[in-house]
Design goal:
The structure holds 2 protein chains of 2 kinds.
Chain A lengths: L1 E4 L7 H9 L4 E4 L2 H6 L2 E4 L5 H10 L2 H10 L4 E4 L1 H4 L2 E4 L5 E2 L4 E7 L12 E6 L1 E2 L14 E6 L1 E4 L5 E6 L3 E8 L2 E4 L7 H12 L6
Parallel strand pairs in A: 1-2, 1-3, 3-4, 4-14, 5-7
Antiparallel strand pairs in A: 5-6, 7-11, 8-10, 9-12, 12-13, 13-14
Chain B lengths: L4 E9 L2 E6 L2 E5 L3 H10 L5 E5 L4 H17 L4 E4 L5 H8 L5 E4 L1 H5 L3 H9 L4 E10 L2 E6 L4 E6 H11 L3 E6 L11 H8 L6 E4 L5 H10 L5 E4 L1 H4 L5 H10 L10 H5 L1
Parallel strand pairs in B: 1-4, 1-12, 4-5, 5-6, 6-7, 7-10, 10-11, 11-12
Antiparallel strand pairs in B: 1-2, 2-3, 7-8, 8-9
Classes of the chains: A alpha/beta, B alpha/beta.
Chain lengths: 206, 261
């Protein structure tokens, strides 16, 4: 069973539905015992980094997720959920994340050419970098759906794919059993479903 | 490179998809769920569900249809029609909508966009404007294009974006249903006024109309249409191929979840 962490951020209907579509049971929950018994954890999130980080900590989800990851359970952060995996974000200030992957969240405005719209909204291609099991069923150049104004910087070793938005922006990361997607696999059609399916096959604890 | 989006729009009334020519003479097309699945499978980049039901009963039916669609379709869904309050945002977001477009609701209640953007983020709020030339001035129309609000369109759209709308759908009433191409002049004026994505709507009659749109106005992010897709006059995959041939970035899809399964 997949636990989708519910900490009061974002719309989890599609995420839950996408696991149903690939034949996996997923539960939207903040229940400690359910999360502990899950085979995989999804950390979703949209909105502001500082609000989400506060909510993760105040609900106890931050510590719980970290301790489950410590036991070797596969975790995937999606969109803001991915950004929360890093040490620090510079989104309107400086805020601490979960510190599961080394790197910083920075505005895309710092690296993309002037004239490109912010946020990046739409379908862009993945350019594979380091190998990762979650791309088992997709290929280099496949399109996924992005909505973001910030990106993960200073994390070259963890990058598994980038996307070209006038500059290469981090699209996905992996550090051991911790995975992150800047894009929305649950909104990326068949490609996205295939990424979720491959994630469910990681860790060998189905 | 980010691709130009192609977006079929499904006008839904009492649980069925309809399409009006100049907003009148509504004709029945098909089941919204079936159409959404079909489009998702054959290359649509996003779908817009527009609720044109007036009754509470119809609204409930719409919400059911939306939930059913969101369970089966995994591309972004935008919902519009009858969005007047933050509670309306909540209602459709819970059913799986990713973005909510406001039109008359924002005209009646100018603080709606700001409140919704604060709660759900700018990326969730789309301002949809029905615009028509009146004595040479772009004017915003309300109530499905029936009522002139006297608002000057470019100023209105700028104000909405300033309040937190993260995308603009510009529907030209002058070109809607005419099938002779998008309203390039009106779109150019909007693109020069805002820095958020602009979605062109109204007037597409053939593949070339989309090519002309993206070639002439590279700042336009997406093209939206209804009947030409519903009646199969334009197949989205053909359109995407033609876009790619013309050097317009397009997402070409294969149905490869089914294949790899």
């Amino acid at each position: 069973m997949i636990a989708i962490i519910d900490y009061g951020v974002g719309n989890l209907f599609s995420l839950k539905s996408s696991f149903a579509a690939i034949g996996k049971e997923a539960v939207v929950t903040n229940d400690k015992s359910i999360i502990e018994s899950a085979s995989h954890i999804i950390l979703p999130g949209v909105g502001a980094f500082s609000d989400a980080a506060d909510k993760l900590r105040s609900t106890g989800m931050a510590d719980l997720v970290k301790s489950e990851v410590g036991k070797g359970k596969p975790l995937m952060g999606i969109c803001l959920g991915m950004q929360l995996l890093f040490d620090k974000s510079f989104e309107y200030g400086e805020y601490k994340g979960l510190d599961l992957i080394k790197g910083n969240i920075r505005p895309i405005a710092e690296v993309i050419p002037a004239g490109l719209k912010i946020p990046q909204i739409g379908w862009n291609a993945l350019e594979f970098r380091n190998e990762t099991p979650i791309f088992k069923y997709i290929k280099n150049g496949d399109y996924v759906y992005f909505v973001h104004s910030f990106y993960a910087a200073d994390c070259d070793e963890a990058i598994t794919a980038v996307t070209d938005y006038g500059a290469p922006l981090t699209a996905s990361v992996q550090s051991g059993n911790v995975f992150g997607c800047q894009f929305h696999p649950e909104k990326s059609g068949d490609i996205g479903l295939n990424i979720l399916r491959a994630f469910c096959e990681t860790g060998g604890c189905l | 490179m980010i691709t130009k989006r192609i977006i079929p729009c499904l006008d839904v009334k009492n649980g069925r998809v309809v399409k009006g020519i100049n907003f009148e003479n509504l004709g029945d097309v098909d089941s919204p769920v079936k159409l959404a699945e079909y489009y998702s499978k054959f290359g649509a980049d996003e779908l817009v569900f527009y609720d044109i039901t007036a009754s509470a009963e119809g609204r409930e039916l719409f919400t059911d249809i939306l939930c059913e669609t969101a369970r089966k379709v995994f591309i972004p869904l935008t919902v519009g029609g009858g969005i007047n309050t933050v509670a309306d945002f909540d209602r459709v977001l819970k059913c799986g909508a990713d973005k909510v477009s406001v039109n008359s609701g924002a005209i009646r209640n100018p603080s709606l966009i700001g409140e919704a953007a604060k709660l759900y983020g700018d990326q969730c709020v789309v301002i949809s404007a029905d615009v028509k030339r009146v004595d040479g001035v772009f004017r915003v129309f309300a109530k499905g294009g029936r009522e002139n609000t006297d608002l000057e369109a470019i100023e209105w759209i700028k104000r909405c974006v300033g309040n937190g709308a993260g995308e603009v759908v510009l529907n030209s009433i002058d070109t809607d249903g005419v099938k002779k191409g998008f309203d390039l002049e009106m779109l150019d004026a909007v693109c020069n006024a805002v820095s958020v994505p602009v979605i062109a709507s109204g007037g597409a009659g053939c593949i070339n109309d989309f090519i002309t749109l993206f070639k002439t106005l590279p700042k336009v992010d997406a093209g939206l249409a209804a009947s030409i897709f519903h009646f199969g006059e334009v197949k989205i995959n053909d359109l995407k191929k033609k876009m790619a041939e013309n050097g317009i970035p397009a997402r070409i899809t294969e149905n490869n979840y089914a294949e790899s399964r």
